[in-house]
Amino acid sequence: MIAVRDLVVRFDRKGAPAVAGVSFAIEKGETFGLVGESGCGKSTVLRAIAGLVPGHSGDVLLDGRPVPARRDRAFYSRVQMVFQDPYGSLHPRQTIAAQLAEPLRNLGLNGGPARVDRALETVGLDPAFRWRFPHELSGGQRQRVAIARALIVEPEVLLLDEPTSALDVSVQAEILNLLTELRRRRGLTYLLVSHDLAVISHMCGELAVMQRGRILERLDVERLRAGTVEHPYSAELLAASEAYGELRPA
Amino acid sequence: MSAPLVSARNLTVRFATQKGPVDAVRGVSFDLGREKIGIVGESGSGKSTVGRALMRLLPRSATVAADRLVVCDTDVLAADEKIMRRIRGRRIGLIMQDPKYSLNPVVPVGLQIAETFRLHSPAHAGARAAREATLALLRQVRIHDPERVAGLYPHQISGGMGQRVMIAMVLAGGPEVLIADEPTSALDVTVRMEVLSLLDELVARKGLGLLFISHDLNLVRRFCDRVLIMYAGRVVEALKASEIDHAKHPYTQGLLASLPLIRQPREILPTLVRDPAWRESA
């Protein structure tokens, strides 16, 4: 469905590249996870795919065909992104309805209140929310709006950048469940970036561990769950994520 | 059993807001000895406000009331600001979440530690003594080349090292009680381990009392001795960390169940159905 080939992103001409030759492909209906710590380049991969990083090299392929360097309407009608921070990604002074209608307008699609209402219902919000402003919403409700905004153009691929890491765990569970349900109902394809191995394990079929702009290891989720990772860094990440218990002095 | 380092009975914190009074903390009671107590709750549960109330670091809009609020033999409710200044830092230290925002960006970290040391040293230590103490403190937080690190500015050090510098600075006052408010939430998992094991070692070796405020139930159950679960300003459940799996309160059970687990896949995560009664019954 969507793939990247030899993706390289440089922010600094002299320094090491932020993304140093990353390739992977995601089948339709699958969820692929990118996991790693701060600065490993995982979010930059996502932003490069979305066309938000100027001057990357390598190809982004949609159904096997390279997408144009300047992403066009055809691309954005098929690929949409959900950002980490629902406090920063919604316009503070626009109503929810205005923000949901914007992608439709940008892509020249037919709008109308009915479509906004349907998008809200899709993410489990009452249509009455259309007249509210972001500050009147909880963090979980805002992230639902952000997901609705991505889905309103009926894309096939969602790029999810740490979609629950700004949320409380009980709200995280609701949003992850919503994403799971939407993927199943609509046959969506997800690329999920997270620092949290538990979230990745819960959501993904396949994943890649990144460090310093490179993919160190690709695994299917069974191997992650069984703990049979190969690269020492993956093992360290797994141990650190699971084993706070080892801290306790014997 | 010696007297607890912190003793709170029926602690209540009320904020005056434009929409009327809001009770952020409602009737919280606990004793902290030389042990690690975790306070766990979600955003807005009042967990940080409890920590701030112990140090009286709340804004003027807050009213603190309690049947008893004693920190290191001092009645915090009766103490004037002069007494509080002698306690803060010297008897009770606060470690905050993000070293990026807590350190002064234009002063080398060594000077910041030395300043704290001189402020709290009873005999008004000179520059040289402060410098030596700073290097010793940096060694205590497992910084192996303290001379070099002391001269660095906050933007030149990593998040994990920044948090160790913060801990060194808090230790400079020689406190008996540490309040750590989400001390590892801004850190990567592999770095988080280092900071936690450092805190663990310091608390054990110096015999400190630690109040560890966190949203992360899994972390707290492994790290702390006892856990207080807060919901809507109340402690809804208090239990030994080792007994969390047998938690009785539906909120605690719900929090545990809603966590995704690496090794136990579930198609759908159980979600919390919040019962209005949780707000009222302790």
At the third CATH level, what is the topology name of chain B?
A: Rossmann fold
- The unreliable regions of chain A are 245-250
The appropriate CATH architecture of chain B is 3-Layer(aba) Sandwich
CATH superfamily annotation of chain B: P-loop containing nucleotide triphosphate hydrolases
- State mean pLDDT of chain A (0 to 100 scale): 91
Q: How does the overall form of chain A come out from the CA principal axes? A: globular
Task: Measure the end-to-end span of chain B.
Answer: 27 Å
Strands of the biggest beta sheet of chain B: in what spatial order? 7-8-9-3-10-11
C-alpha Rg of chain A (nearest Å):
19 Å
Q: Describe the sheet with the most strands of chain B.
A: 6 strands, mixed
Please state the average pLDDT score of chain B: 92
Q: What's the number of extended β-strand segments of chain B?
A: 11
Specify the number of helices of chain B: 10
Structural class of chain B: alpha/beta
Characterise this structure:
Chain A: GO terms for molecular function: ATP binding. The complex is a heterodimer of chains A (about 250) and B (about 280). By secondary structure, chain A is α/β, with parallel strands linked by helices. Chain A has helices spanning about 40-50, 75, 95-105, 115-120, 140-150, 170-185, 195-205, 220-225, 230-240; strands spanning about 1-10, 20-25, 30-35, 55-60, 65, 80, 155-160, 190-195, 205-210, 215-220. Chain A has a domain at about 1-70 and about 190-240: P-loop containing nucleotide triphosphate hydrolases (Rossmann fold, 3-Layer(aba) Sandwich). Chain A is built from 9 helices and 10 strands. In chain A, strands 6-7-8-3-9-10 form a 6-stranded mixed β-sheet, with helices on both faces. In chain A, helix 6 links the parallel strand 7 and strand 8 (about 190-195). In chain A, helix 3 packs parallel to helix 5 and helix 5 runs parallel beside helix 6 (about 170-185). Chain B has one domain (about 5-270): Rossmann fold (3-Layer(aba) Sandwich), CATH 3.40.50.300. Helices cover about 35% and strands about 25% of the residues of chain B. Chain B has a 6-stranded mixed β-sheet with strand order 7-8-9-3-10-11, with helices on both faces. In chain B, strands 1, 2, 4, 5 and 6 form a 5-stranded antiparallel β-sheet that branches. In chain B, helix 5 (about 125-140) packs across helix 7 (about 160-170). Classes of the chains: A alpha/beta (about 250), B alpha/beta (about 280).
